[in-house]
Amino acid sequence: MELSDDTLLGFAIALGIGLLIGVDRERMKGEGPSRSAAGVRTFTLTALIGAVAGAINSDALMAAVAIGVVGLAGLSYWRSPPEDPGLTSEIALVVTALLGMLTMSQPVLAAGAGVVVAGVLYSREVLHRFIRSCLTEAELSDALIFAAATLVVLPLLPDEALDPYGVLNLRKIWIVVILIMAISGAGYIAVRLLGVKFGLPVSGFASGFVSSSATIGAMASRVKDTPALLKPAAAGAVLSTVATIVQLALLLAAVNMTVLRALAIPLALAGLAAVLYGGVFTLWALKHEGQGDDKPGGAFSLGTALALAATLTVILVASAALQAWLGETGVVIATAVAGFADTHSAAASTAQLASAQRITAEQAVLPVLAAFSTNTVTKIVLAFTGDRTFALSVVPGLLLVAAAAWAGVFLSGGKLI
After folding, report:
1. 88-102 helix and 5-27 helix, angle to the nearest 10 degrees
2. How does DSSP assign 17-42, residue by residue?
3. pTM of the model
4. Cα-only R_g, the chain
């Protein structure tokens, strides 16, 4: 065995891993006859034994060390008190030995994994409290759906066009769906963490990542039931549009950066208008106490994800077909109609057309803004479903945001046709 710098580094990392994990296990070891068998010294020596086996680089020796550690861990579990049937320390001991071996071939990976293991062990109480008291069944279901969509469905989808127009790529469509789910989940987590303590403006902005249209409809309903919430609800409704713009920018960045650059000024001006208009109501809203009646639900639904995928697929094919028949006018018509239901799927499909070189990035500006405008019409209709005063407070802001987006095209020197 050659004692090189890499070998010394491996031993140093193994020593650190053993101490880091061992310190936590020592704290949980207990005292007296019922104490756990492994503490800081045992874990440190186990990591070093693994490092020695890895340095010698003998498969037989590494297998023997692993089997020996597993045997000792099993013996420790067998002799543990019946009232403590946990396997955490025993499994951690085996992992420590394996990480010790890994330090010789992948020291950086071993060090990072050691920190993660120590962090998981240290966060025992926090994790247990979160799972038992905070995590709901719906949230767990959403997490499993997201994991399946990302780790199971995505790898199975073909990465090639399946239609005669060359735009229907199932893998790219599903990536957009996953991104929508991730952003929606992030917004939902923000709502769960903040609640309504900081008022409806913050929760409205966060909920906008899930659905700005739905947020406006919900705010309208709350004002109809509680007219005193007019100003904070109006602020939350308008600020949800900021989330729409941020989400739209992230989607365009994921699909086609060139289209995002072409829309940078319109989106920036629209977002600024929404922030300024919503800020006026926020100044009043900050004086209001949250009602505390928001209940945890789901971050997203499988039906919504599938509907988005179906919508995006139809828009892609329809836009390509209309573009082939009617030129660029067909794309504008298709995306404008789709915008009534959802801006993001329409914009993503347009950006995908640009990626497939069916249209240029500049030609994608008009369809995206058309979808943004028709979606604004949907929001206006939803605003009027509640209190009339609420609608008269929110609608000018929505119109200002849409106008700012169109003004951004002319200020950037872009052409609509």
Report:
1. 170
2. HHHHHHHHHHHTS-SSTTS-S--HHH
3. 0.53
4. 28
